[in-house]
Amino acid sequence: MSRDLYENLADSLTKKGVDVARVEAAIKSFEIETPSWGYGNSGTRFGVFKEPGAARTLHERLQDAAEVHRVTGVCPSVAIHIPWDKVDDFAAVKAEAAALGVRIGAVNPNVFQDKAYKYGSLTNVDPAIRQKAMDAILECVDIMTKVDSRILSLWFADGSNYPGQVDMRKRKRWMQEALAHIHGKLPVGARMLVEYKLFEPGFYHTDICDWGMSLVMCQHSGANAQVLVDLGHHAHGVNIEFIVASLLDEGMLGGFHFNNRKSADDDLTVGSINPFEVFLIFVEIVAAERSGLIKRPIAYMIDQSHIVKQKIEAMIQSVMNIQAAYARALLVDWKALAHARSRNDAVDAERVIQDAYMTDVRPLLEKIRTDMGLEPDPILAFRNSGYLAKIVEERKGELKGAASWG
Amino acid sequence: MSRDLYENLADSLTKKGVDVARVEAAIKSFEIETPSWGYGNSGTRFGVFKEPGAARTLHERLQDAAEVHRVTGVCPSVAIHIPWDKVDDFAAVKAEAAALGVRIGAVNPNVFQDKAYKYGSLTNVDPAIRQKAMDAILECVDIMTKVDSRILSLWFADGSNYPGQVDMRKRKRWMQEALAHIHGKLPVGARMLVEYKLFEPGFYHTDICDWGMSLVMCQHSGANAQVLVDLGHHAHGVNIEFIVASLLDEGMLGGFHFNNRKSADDDLTVGSINPFEVFLIFVEIVAAERSGLIKRPIAYMIDQSHIVKQKIEAMIQSVMNIQAAYARALLVDWKALAHARSRNDAVDAERVIQDAYMTDVRPLLEKIRTDMGLEPDPILAFRNSGYLAKIVEERKGELKGAASWG
Amino acid sequence: MSRDLYENLADSLTKKGVDVARVEAAIKSFEIETPSWGYGNSGTRFGVFKEPGAARTLHERLQDAAEVHRVTGVCPSVAIHIPWDKVDDFAAVKAEAAALGVRIGAVNPNVFQDKAYKYGSLTNVDPAIRQKAMDAILECVDIMTKVDSRILSLWFADGSNYPGQVDMRKRKRWMQEALAHIHGKLPVGARMLVEYKLFEPGFYHTDICDWGMSLVMCQHSGANAQVLVDLGHHAHGVNIEFIVASLLDEGMLGGFHFNNRKSADDDLTVGSINPFEVFLIFVEIVAAERSGLIKRPIAYMIDQSHIVKQKIEAMIQSVMNIQAAYARALLVDWKALAHARSRNDAVDAERVIQDAYMTDVRPLLEKIRTDMGLEPDPILAFRNSGYLAKIVEERKGELKGAASWG
Amino acid sequence: MSRDLYENLADSLTKKGVDVARVEAAIKSFEIETPSWGYGNSGTRFGVFKEPGAARTLHERLQDAAEVHRVTGVCPSVAIHIPWDKVDDFAAVKAEAAALGVRIGAVNPNVFQDKAYKYGSLTNVDPAIRQKAMDAILECVDIMTKVDSRILSLWFADGSNYPGQVDMRKRKRWMQEALAHIHGKLPVGARMLVEYKLFEPGFYHTDICDWGMSLVMCQHSGANAQVLVDLGHHAHGVNIEFIVASLLDEGMLGGFHFNNRKSADDDLTVGSINPFEVFLIFVEIVAAERSGLIKRPIAYMIDQSHIVKQKIEAMIQSVMNIQAAYARALLVDWKALAHARSRNDAVDAERVIQDAYMTDVRPLLEKIRTDMGLEPDPILAFRNSGYLAKIVEERKGELKGAASWG
């Protein structure tokens, strides 16, 4: 780590009025959850390219997540996907995670891959399948208790491919009744986050298609339902940071699924395509924090399915990019911004925003990592650890009962 | 009108189980509101091409609207835009409209053209301008009483062009407080419809950007606020008929601004680019009618700014296309559709939908018009009337005080 | 088939000046190729839902294609995908197809599924993999000779996911050199069609991303290279019929991959989402035919991967929708259209176009089928044939060596 | 200017192997052309908000451009729009510009605002209007000679709003014949750049709609025709840097119209919405420079219509953002990038790209400006100059004969 670069940056920021110690404290306490499914094989409909060393079971996924936490220091929790991560003894998983230095985060019911769900899960026209999906989700609620998870993360592939195929209105009712029922079963202190997505795998309609529909679903459910924003699930041209700001204002922003996209739901590493957008989202979050609007912690979760990048490195890279975006957002000169806005001075407002964005925060992040007893560059730390060679060696062949995305 | 074609169609539909008399009654009672501003000059930012005979004042616009009603028989009301349509004596306007065989429909406050609104109206950072906009809107509420209008139609150009330029969250609050205030001032029995738009003239953010934001605004306002859906105001790939169905289910669909688009907010004549979409929207409406969901009448309004088509003809053509879409939607075999859906048979569901859509309903519409004492083809009726030649002759030069879109 | 409905329609068309016999002859001679891969299982990245009776081998796929041809009468050729359809003896396949009443159409090299192609095929940074892809394609050229195919249909999944990942310019060179080489190996009288696609599976860049890039590749290749237009491979807002018209004008339109989309590359059945667009494409084709611009036959091919529809029915439905679009395009009153255009009368031009489009051509198509010795409704003919029950019974279990999309 | 920050940056870059002197020399010689129309009033179709001091004539626009050049040092040329900038004596203009320290750059014929062009210019169905447009353009060719301009910059609003409205194929022929004719009239050493745009003001089809169509037009014209890329003229999801790379590879990239967009053709200041995209475009340019592909100078031109920003400041801000993007692109470690690409290491490739992008180049740019005898911050230099107060005072009222965008 370059101490000089850090000192220069810190001096420069201090001169601008930034409370550097406070910024560093905020970054140190900012945690990002990684997803178990991001460590396994995945692909597109054109094929899955299996990667040597890709995690095959929850146990291997927890190891990988722990490795990411080891080098980044800010990823202590792991989201799981049921049934992909289903095991017999979840109490043991809790202990296993703890031994690895991590914990289980959000529980994500998967009600899209079983062949029963071809035409939907909670919105299936067949009541038996709706019940099956409900049972699967309530099983996840049980698992939440066993692993001390406070977040039920709900995404549904439910939708249709053709005009006329389904009664969209009836499905809306089924969905909201089911969600209200699930809400009633949540453990004390837990929340359910309702994710939306414009399309895929449904190509004509998706039952929960945008933030408006997620919000309606949460309103029908109850006080512990909030919206989950996945950065890759919007139509082109949509202003995501404004959705974030609006949900914050309504007290309805539960969390994020971070990733990046250029085309559709690309599941690319955060910040790889449009880093400015990630920064602007954090600007809204920091602004809302300053306004005292955030009453319940926002769940910052990564949701990516790495295809061409080494999976663990891709996760680390995303964590680093999220940190960089947040760090820059913490540098915004709010007073100057407010002044520019009061004069409708778009030039100066942009100068304030860009001043924070253009700052090279890497020396700051490296210094923070050193403070935390980490290597300054987590990617290099990972590469130098020998971890990858080890898992490539260990994880040969397919495991019985292993399930995943791809 | 070809009686034979009608007889053949009616026989064919009757054989399929369609209650033709009922369909005809529904079409006859289906009214479409035309907008005063659609009769005046308009254009793009690249220029306004003035059309001979284009209406210059509310009086001329009412004449043109009356002409459209004369040849279509289903357009008895006219939406107005204030201040474009502002006159001294609105009581006289009411009488003038009645004499022409029409009435005033929705009142649309224009709070975007005055130079004060450069940075917003109800969401302007300057409280004096927010008040100015509020006054302008409350003046429209007064006008509603004078002209017996039951609908206040609210669209706001408010937004911003650059990241950082405005405090989006603060503007959201200003907007919802202002709308709640307006709601409290509505005449008895009146509603306010809150329109949304993805972008333009704001290119970075728009304060009311999608149906979710309109819905939130209505929820904060009160029981007489509903959402207005403009067909040209969505991102690409969005399923508008699903939004319509969802709003109907929530009891929050107030009305439509009909037009068509391929690119952005093109304001093209209804059904010119994607006639199937208009049909699918009406399928949802008819389905909701059958379910008893529609408690308050939906306001079917056209919002178009004709550039390359003769304006009155363009309006008539849109009315005809809306009627055709509605007529086809009335032909859907709901029983067969429900059966196909219950089996997840997307092939048969599409066959039911397409059977209605592919039916050539023109003989039916022509017969209905004849029943109503109209010419079967309203475009030809207009062309044969000599009306256009007359207004081209009469409307030469610019009128003092005339205002419009372009 | 309703003789009366046909007679009424024919009379009505004749009165309008349509040469009905000529229209019927055109429709009868209009052939559509179906894809072998459309009869096998497929899915999305979220999963493949296997369908009872789905074809597992080329032999089964040919049977299904023959069934589609049996009930539609216009699908005598079948496109194949290598290696999915690879067999030892292609001479035998030719005979097998002939015995089933069909023939092999376009040969489609699949150079995306083998794990070697993870980072590209003809544009892979590794020369050995580029050579492997070249060999695979030249093997397809050999197969063309064996099965008497005249069309090599080239689509490449080649692209990248991240800015910086690849040298896009170098890959362009590799692609154009490879295509020129392939062009030199084409059998006498054969053509290669170069398909483009905006995105997927590449999410940042695709080596052949749009019609412009396909055109450039064809220009660098030689006289027997033409562009292949897949209806689902464009960005939102793009005018496909204008691309079609422009390629026709350049003599560079080789053929189509028909399907439909609302979101991305949805692979939905033709005409299910936007039937007007299909019609407008055929309007351009008919216009070009009338202008004598079409020197080499356009290859009309379906490319769909059915998920929620029964696969054979979905194919038949697409064929019917294509026929309906073509039939309507044949009804355009070109003289009236030219007249409207000469006056810049967009209202009348649209009336001409809509007059053709709104015509219910189903009685005409039913009559033509009857003339051809077919049942008027191919879907019902298929359902009544017992074919589906038979294949569901026969095709149980997985076959060794069977390969497919899903 | 902070000398220390510069020294630190230079040291750090030098350690990484960057030849800082070479980078500085490249930035100093990198020139950006500003557009005369960017200094005048403009707006959206919803209205034009006039700005105090906005330039009303070519003379005032040249003054403003000279002011931008004075504070940035890299904007010595000014693009003009005819007839907006038409004057009687262009020889005098040349002298006037020289006296102000600038020169005339590209000449842009405006063939869209005259009422004759409502239905097109070079593609109008009326040969007289086609001739009128041709005459207007050839007049611009004459002006080129008078003002020593080497670039004819061609953008056409030509298109249509409705399916059927025009014969798109015939218009393509008219366009290519006209462009070939214009090409033949170009002064020695001059080029014509053919711009494309997806939509607006045409909402159904645009005659030159994408880079493929521009390329075809250039190919039909001759060796001095090249494509002009406007950053705001693409469909959503299109990879502009790949288009740039491909045109460079074909030797067909003539120049840029820089601006930014989130929605459609927003004409926002460069880098305000997606600064990473601008950087990636420059990465491709620098790479092509290194490969010796650039035989004729690329015309770097700004094309913006400022609405909510003070116009001169907006122009300066854009110039600064372009410089920053170019400066960062010059820092790419090409050797490391090539190495990462050769291993298909997308993680490392991104690290190389992001290392350049995340570098805060502002101290470098400030040092360069100081070297050039300029103030380090051109915006502050402008604000401190008193120029704005002066023009606000001087430019009151409307001038006879003044014409502009708005």
Give a topology summary.
The structure is a homotetramer of 406-residue chains.
Chain A (H helix, E strand, L loop, with lengths): L2 H13 L4 H9 L5 E2 L7 E2 L2 E2 L9 H15 L4 E6 L7 H11 L2 E7 L17 H21 L3 E4 L4 E2 L7 H18 L5 E5 L9 E2 L4 H11 L3 E6 L9 H11 L2 E6 L16 H16 L8 E4 L8 H20 L3 H9 L3 H13 L3 H10 L6 H8 L1 H8 L12
Parallel strand pairs in A: 1-4, 4-5, 6-8, 8-10, 10-11, 11-12
Antiparallel strand pairs in A: 2-3, 7-9
Helix pairs in contact in A: 1-13, 2-10, 3-4, 3-10, 3-14, 6-7, 8-9, 9-10, 10-12, 11-12
How would you characterize the overall build of this protein?
- Four copies of one chain form a homotetramer.
- By secondary structure, chain A is an alpha/beta fold.
- Chain A has a domain of 271 residues: TIM Barrel.
- The first copy, chain A, has 15 helices and twelve strands.
- In chain A, helix 1 packs across helix 13.
- The longest helix of chain A is centred in the middle third of the chain and has 21 residues.
- The first copy, chain A, is globular.
- In chain A, 63% of the residues are buried.
- The model of chain A has no long low-confidence stretch (mean pLDDT 96).
- Chains in contact: A-B, A-C, A-D, B-C, B-D, C-D.
- Chains C and D meet through helix 6, strand 9, helix 7, helix 8 and helix 9 of C and helix 6, strand 9, helix 7, helix 8 and helix 9 of D.
